[in-house]
């Protein structure tokens, strides 16, 4: 078996442009984590079920373990690192997760943060039931989800500001 | 869990894609949303030598509503079809089925046409196509062919697609006026493939009495099972005789046991969920907008 | 005044890092390392005839392929039997790479090292192993029947038979007014943390030292094991636990084959080597738990009081027994819960099967024990027509009977003595919280709407904080920062926050000046590990004792500097003050400077501690006798025995009369884990435990085929609950302090999971009127039970 051919692909991650040469089979999750060293995106199953690897592509959450990096030519990708505030501190969703104790081991957390960040764009004031529904495609083995539901609602408050 | 190596092709037009697929034959596979193909590759249950990535062909990313129905292009994501207001108006069953397909995150990437080609007997959209009627457009270097819904699903994970062919679009027929539809399923967890699911389509007369009633069932046969249940409509035309319904269904379905459910339970669910879906579909059936206006 | 942090809802100091993507889990490290994949057995039981690697060798990017033949020295010996017990007469452990036989699907046979995991898997696909399949023993029934044997030299597939007895149970049962017999069983599940295992090893050939990062629950013990296996002096090996994405028991087992193989390969290759377990590997080669079958005989009177209880059970321990008999021993002792059983006899057989090994998963044998006892309580109530809560109340150990000695030996080899608890008060809180007494009205209303509902409850007692010991180290840096370390590890329980809260209070320093490190043998070498809900009790106590020691030292030094008496000093907000004289203060950083007399002034602070900086008594040595330089201390906590937490759960379920779908409407928890350090963290532990309890009751099971193939080795088919499956959890606390430790705390980590199956079974039985004797239960199984009743 000879060395694998590399394929060129250009996209942006958290606003920064990248021009990569990777094997065609490189999963986006691996490209982010190991080629770009953005290790905030986690891998919990590599078959699309757990959601730990969720990133935003052109604003919409997708599983980064279920796409090849080369397929994302021209895309704008946002990872959990891109959900920070302008100063590099905690963004609204991240802040809410801390306030509500919505994480324990933190392994699932990046997938929740990205999912919730996208969700809040068009759901400024979710009810508890809506918040629960919104996070129902992500697995967490630690928290029992209750505080994550609270954090979704709290993040909406922080992001959209009560009355602001 | 990493895929085997493959050669990657990124055509920009349908022509280019079809040329590639033609040249590759059995060696080539279409990569659409990848939501079924990539996990299979990561588990090394599939190892295609070449992937033809159709995600960069703008002409495939379409949802068009016509008098005949809704035409969904090959790269239209489940989420886009689900949210398309005109598509919902024309055939509400599309959205009713789609909200049961996995989780929103999967629907953001997975394609409706890909789901049809993949032909999972537990998938919702094949049942929707089978029930509404319609067709899939297949293109190859030899030209185009249109396969009717009834002929498209051949067996579990097997559609009428041949090597070298690209499914460019699928058309879902618009149901007749005064029709109602519903999709009811039971899954172990919210978002899982259903233990059993039923799509129902009911058409009524001006007085609301049922004139035709059909269902399509998933996870109880090798392909979506379409059953005409008109014979189970009660004399009054407003309700269904559950026993007759069960008889009709039993004659058509052939459920199997797996680790999640016995065959007996699936059969029972088919009865219960079909009754629920029909009732709900009947509730949605009613006068057309024009009739209401007059 | 510094406000007291102990008991407060302090936000976690871990979180800013973790939520922003700055956590460092195992696979986030070692980007330069070679990566490993394994050829694993596709057979449950087979002899290895031949291994042919020739095709694999051609793959570009391959670094090395190893089989058992390559393992030298002690690497070739079986892995250690970690917890030997005299009763474990037939303990067996596996080799790091299978020698001539495989005993479960997933057992590692060949190790492949390559430039990355993709290439390593390519090679794995090209290695040919020839097997001669042998008959597989799968499930407890097959193991008991023993028509085939897992290990030819283990008769009856029995690793151990153990009996404990207090009083003459059989005689007491025979003499009792009523006798009931029940068969009860629980299926296999698993810890299933979101992050699998993983190991990264770096060998420094110049320094002849090995640095291992591993996603473990015990770094100190991995260090000893790696040194022993590799034949290295222990002081040449350090083991660091990075951020760990959950453990729940599976990562307390060690050394996993990979934990010795990866360091071994790193030394051989002189290059960093990493293995990151993928999900499929985790399913087929990391431990499972729970599968047990139980037969209960119970004798009781007209009031429902127990006279005698006899339990026989069969425990499926999988293919090997590296973790000894801990799980069945816990079941056999903890099934007693808050009750006085009268005379008690328990006998278990621990059985080999050709499946993945069984070691503790959160709860560790308690969920099974609780299920057995609580189903028995319900059966007694049902037989006598009594209220289920009332029967429990009548059998409770009363607060005035504490400490209560069951006359048995617990998992730590110590007597089973409950230290404290107020069970009637807990039950009272629970029945109020869930509205136990008003439920019939609710049931009637639901029924009128065509809905079917049921209520159930379950109680448990949990031995927590088992020994032998943990330690802590606290040092005040010269800038006033306080660094704390403890040897045990963290998998998300908020230990850094919790331990900082304790130190902040004990030492009188602001919370944000405290840095806590766990599970790094470079920082602290003596520890046991994180399991059995022991961190708050063990490390919490150890760190508190240490902080007290450091405080005393700080006061001694400050007393000299401030020319005051120690008794007049206090530490507030990081400053030592003379009580009542506001001006006289010295900050702890300065005290730290003074604690370390110096010759060299390498910075301004140090200058103050040099020989000529301060006038000193020429006749006393700079470091006083009995003192050591530095404002630091180390101390250990070693309790006489475990402390016992308790709790009670009540559940309301709705079952669909047509589809047999099961929905949890309400889930109420009353929980007593002694004094609470951080209620927010404790509630989080309860939530997580309950979710796992719900999973174990309604969704999760390891589904083995008769040939020993695991049929659902993916998250698609092993159904861990999403948010949509977990109910809102209502919690009420009781705080009965433990008399056994300086903080009064008891463990909280496992509690939430224990009564899940018992309480949910109770509620389903109540809704359906069908006895529920085995868990988990799916809609299909409930449908089946209904069909069998109606014929
Ligand atoms: C966690 C998870 C849960 C899911 N749950 C459900 C569910 O509940 N119900 C459900 O229906 N689905 C479910 N899916 C599958 C999902 O709907 C997929 O998107 C769908 O089955 C396939 O669409 P795709 O675009 O991703 O196809 P791909 O994965 O790209 O392709 C699937 C197959 O179809 C072929 N193919 C795709 N498009 C074309 C084309 N245009 N022409 C020719 N061949 C083509 C490919 O070559 C491949 O063989 C789930 C997926 C995941 C990961
Ligand atoms: S790692 Fe992608 S969904 Fe689990
Ligand atoms: S916080 Fe550990 S998996 Fe969610």
UniProtKB/TrEMBL annotation, chain A:
Record's keyword annotation contains Translocase: no
Domain 2Fe-2S ferredoxin-type, first and last residues per copy: 7-83
CDD domains: fer2
Keywords: 2Fe-2S, Iron, Iron-sulfur, Metal-binding, Oxidoreductase
InterPro entries for this protein: 2Fe-2S-bd, 2Fe-2S-bd_dom_sf, 2Fe-2S_ferredoxin-like_sf, 2Fe-2S_ferredoxin-type, 2Fe2S_fd_BS, Beta-grasp_dom_sf, Diverse_Oxidoreductases
Pfam families, sorted: Fer2 (PF00111), Fer2_2 (PF01799)
Gene3D superfamilies associated with the record: 3.10.20.30, [2Fe-2S]-binding domain
Annotated coiled-coil segments of the chain: none
Official protein name in the record: (2Fe-2S)-binding protein
Biological classification of the source: Bacteria, Bacillati, Actinomycetota, Actinomycetes, Propionibacteriales
TrEMBL record, chain B:
Keywords from the UniProt entry: FAD, Flavoprotein, Oxidoreductase
Name of one Pfam family that matches: CO_deh_flav_C
Domain of life: Bacteria
SUPFAM superfamilies: CO dehydrogenase flavoprotein C-terminal domain-like, FAD-binding/transporter-associated domain-like
FAD-binding PCMH-type domain residues: 1-177
Name the UniProt record assigns to this protein: FAD binding domain-containing protein
Biological source species: Nocardioides jiangsuensis
Taxonomic lineage: Bacteria, Bacillati, Actinomycetota, Actinomycetes, Propionibacteriales
UniProtKB/TrEMBL annotation, chain C:
Keywords: Molybdenum, Oxidoreductase
Superkingdom of source: Bacteria
Entries under InterPro entries matching the protein: Ald_Oxase/Xan_DH_a/b, Ald_Oxase/Xan_DH_a/b_sf, Ald_Oxase/xanthine_DH-like, AldOxase/xan_DH_MoCoBD1, AldOxase/xan_DH_MoCoBD2, AldOxase/xan_DH_Mopterin-bd_sf
Domain Aldehyde oxidase/xanthine dehydrogenase a/b hammerhead: 20-135
Gene3D superfamilies assigned to the protein according to its UniProt record, in alphabetical order: Aldehyde oxidase/xanthine dehydrogenase, a/b hammerhead, Aldehyde oxidase/xanthine dehydrogenase, molybdopterin binding domain
PANTHER family: ALDEHYDE OXIDASE 1-RELATED, XANTHINE DEHYDROGENASE
Protein name per its UniProtKB record: Xanthine dehydrogenase family protein molybdopterin-binding subunit
Source taxonomy: Bacteria, Bacillati, Actinomycetota, Actinomycetes, Propionibacteriales
């Amino acid at each position: 078996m000879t060395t694998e051919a590399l394929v060129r692909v250009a996209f942006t991650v958290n606003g920064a442009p990248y021009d990569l040469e990777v094997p065609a089979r490189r999963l986006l999750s691996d490209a982010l984590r190991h080629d770009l060293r953005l290790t905030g995106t986690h891998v919990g199953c590599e078959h699309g079920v757990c959601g730990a690897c969720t990133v935003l592509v052109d604003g919409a959450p997708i599983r980064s373990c279920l796409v090849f990096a080369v397929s994302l030519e021209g895309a704008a990708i946002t990872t959990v690192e891109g959900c920070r505030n302008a100063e590099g501190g905690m963004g609204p969703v991240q802040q809410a997760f801390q306030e509500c104790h919505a994480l324990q081991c933190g392994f699932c957390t990046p997938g929740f943060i990205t999912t919730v960040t996208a969700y809040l764009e068009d759901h400024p004031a979710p009810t508890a039931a809506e918040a629960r529904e919104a996070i129902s495609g992500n697995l967490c083995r630690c928290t029992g989800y209750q505080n994550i539901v609270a954090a979704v609602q709290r993040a909406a408050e922080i992001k959209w500001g009560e009355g602001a | 869990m990493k895929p085997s190596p493959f050669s990657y092709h990124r055509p920009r037009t349908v022509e280019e894609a079809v040329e590639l697929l033609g040249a590759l034959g059995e060696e080539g596979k279409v990569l659409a949303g990848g939501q079924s193909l990539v996990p299979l590759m990561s588990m090394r249950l599939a190892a295609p030598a070449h992937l033809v990535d159709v995600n960069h062909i703008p002409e495939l990313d379409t949802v068009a509503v016509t008098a005949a129905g809704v035409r969904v292009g090959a790269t239209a994501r489940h989420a886009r079809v689900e949210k398309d207001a005109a598509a919902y108006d024309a055939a509400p069953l599309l959205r009713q089925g789609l909200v049961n397909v996995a989780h929103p995150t999967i629907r953001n990437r997975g394609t409706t046409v890909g789901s049809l080609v993949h032909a999972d007997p537990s998938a919702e959209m094949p049942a929707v196509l089978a029930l509404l009627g319609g067709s899939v457009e297949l293109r190859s270097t030899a030209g185009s062919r249109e396969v009717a819904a009834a002929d498209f699903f051949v067996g579990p994970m097997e559609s009428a697609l041949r090597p070298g062919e690209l499914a460019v679009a699928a058309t879902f027929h618009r149901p007749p006026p005064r029709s109602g539809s519903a999709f009811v399923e039971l899954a172990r967890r919210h978002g899982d493939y259903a233990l059993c699911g039923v799509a129902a389509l009911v058409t009524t007369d001006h007085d609301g009495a049922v004139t035709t009633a059909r269902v399509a069932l998933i996870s109880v046969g090798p392909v979506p099972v379409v059953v005409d249940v008109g014979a189970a409509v009660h004399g009054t035309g407003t309700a269904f005789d559950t026993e007759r319904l069960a008889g009709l269904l039993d004659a058509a379905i052939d459920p199997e046991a797996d680790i999640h459910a016995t065959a007996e339970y699936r059969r029972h669910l088919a009865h219960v969920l079909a009754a629920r879906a029909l009732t709900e579909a009947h509730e949605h059936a009613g006068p057309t907008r024009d009739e209401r206006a007059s | 005044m510094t406000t007291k942090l102990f008991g407060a809802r302090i936000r976690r100091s871990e979180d800013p890092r973790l939520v922003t993507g700055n956590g460092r889990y195992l696979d986030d490290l070692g980007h330069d390392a070679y990566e490993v994949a394994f050829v694993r057995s596709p057979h449950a039981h087979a002899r290895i005839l031949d291994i042919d690697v020739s095709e694999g060798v051609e793959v570009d990017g391959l670094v090395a392929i190893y089989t058992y033949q390559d393992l030298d020295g002690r690497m070739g010996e079986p892995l250690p039997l970690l917890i030997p017990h005299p009763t474990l007469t037939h303990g067996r452990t596996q080799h790091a790479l299978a020698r001539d036989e495989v005993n479960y699907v997933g057992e590692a046979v060949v190790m492949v090292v390559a430039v990355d995991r993709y290439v390593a898997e390519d090679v794995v696909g090209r290695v040919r192993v020839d097997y001669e399949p042998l008959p597989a023993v799968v499930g407890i029934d097959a193991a008991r029947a023993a028509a085939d044997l897992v290990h030819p030299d283990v008769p009856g597939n029995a690793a151990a038979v153990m009996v404990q007895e207090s009083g003459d149970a059989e005689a007491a049962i025979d003499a009792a007014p009523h006798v009931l017999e029940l068969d009860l069983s629980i299926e296999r599940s698993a810890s299933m943390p979101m992050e699998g295992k993983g190991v990264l090893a770096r060998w420094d050939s110049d320094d002849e030292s090995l640095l291992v990062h591993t996603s473990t629950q015990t770094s100190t013990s991995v260090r000893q094991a790696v040194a022993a296996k590799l034949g290295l002096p222990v002081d040449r090996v350090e083991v660091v636990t990075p951020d760990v994405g959950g453990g729940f028991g599976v990562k307390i087992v060690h050394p996993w084959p990979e934990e010795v193989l990866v360091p071994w390969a790193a030394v051989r290759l002189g290059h960093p080597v990493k293995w990151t377990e993928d999900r499929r590997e985790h399913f087929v080669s990391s431990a499972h738990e729970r599968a047990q079958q139980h037969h209960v005989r119970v004798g009781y009177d007209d009031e429902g009081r127990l006279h005698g209880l006899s339990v026989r059970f069969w425990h499926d321990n999988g293919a090997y027994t590296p973790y000894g008999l801990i799980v069945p021993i816990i079941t056999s002792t903890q099934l007693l819960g808050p009750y006085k059983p009268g005379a008690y006899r328990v006998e278990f057989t621990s059985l080999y099967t050709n499946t993945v090994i069984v070691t503790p998963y959160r709860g560790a044998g308690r969920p099974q024990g609780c299920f057995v006892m609580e189903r028995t309580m319900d059966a007694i109530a049902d037989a006598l027509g009594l209220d289920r809560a009332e029967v429990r109340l009548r059998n409770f150990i009363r607060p005035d009977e504490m400490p209560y000695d069951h006359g048995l030996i617990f998992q730590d080899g110590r007597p089973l003595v409950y230290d404290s608890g107020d069970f009637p008060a807990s039950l009272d809180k629970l029945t109020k919280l869930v509205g136990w007494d008003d439920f019939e009205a609710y049931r009637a209303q639901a029924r009128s709407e065509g809905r079917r509902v049921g209520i159930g409850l379950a109680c448990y007692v949990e031995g927590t904080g088992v020994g032998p010991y943990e330690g802590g180290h606290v040092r005040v840096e010269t800038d006033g920062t306080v660094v704390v370390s403890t040897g045990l590890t963290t998998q998300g329980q908020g230990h850094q926050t919790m331990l900082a809260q304790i130190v902040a209070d004990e030492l009188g320093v602001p919370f944000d000046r405290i840095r806590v490190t766990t599970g790094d043998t470079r920082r602290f070498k003596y520890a046991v590990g994180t399991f059995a809900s022991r961190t708050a009790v063990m490390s919490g106590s150890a760190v508190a004792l240490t902080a007290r020691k450091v405080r005393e030292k700080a006061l001694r030094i400050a007393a000299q500097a401030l020319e005051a008496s120690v008794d007049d000093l206090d530490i507030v907000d990081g400053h030592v003050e003379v009580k009542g004289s506001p001006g006289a203060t010295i900050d702890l950083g300065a005290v730290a400077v003074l604690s370390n007399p110096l010759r060299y002034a390498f910075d301004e602070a140090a200058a103050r501690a040099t020989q000529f900086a301060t006038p000193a008594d020429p006749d006393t040595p700079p470091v006083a006798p009995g003192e050591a330089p530095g404002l630091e201390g180390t101390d250990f906590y070693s309790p006489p025995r475990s402390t016992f937490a308790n709790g009670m759960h009540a559940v309301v379920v709705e079952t669909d009369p047509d589809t047999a779908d099961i929905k949890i409407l309400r889930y109420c928890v009353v929980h007593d884990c002694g004094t609470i350090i951080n209620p927010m963290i404790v509630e989080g532990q309860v939530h997580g435990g309950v979710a796992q309890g719900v999973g174990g009751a309604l969704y999760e099971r390891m589904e083995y085929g008769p040939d020993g193939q695991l049929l659902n080795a993916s998250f698609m088919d092993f159904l861990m609950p999403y948010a949509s499956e977990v109910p809102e959890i209502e919690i009420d606390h009781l705080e009965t302090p433990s008399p056994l430790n300086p903080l009064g705390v008891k463990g909280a980590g496992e509690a939430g999971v224990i009564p899940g199956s018992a309480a949910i079974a109770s509620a389903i039985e109540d809704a359906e009127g069908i006895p529920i004797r085995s868990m988990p239960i799916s809609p299909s199984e409930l449908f089946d039970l209904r069909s069998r009743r109606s014929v």
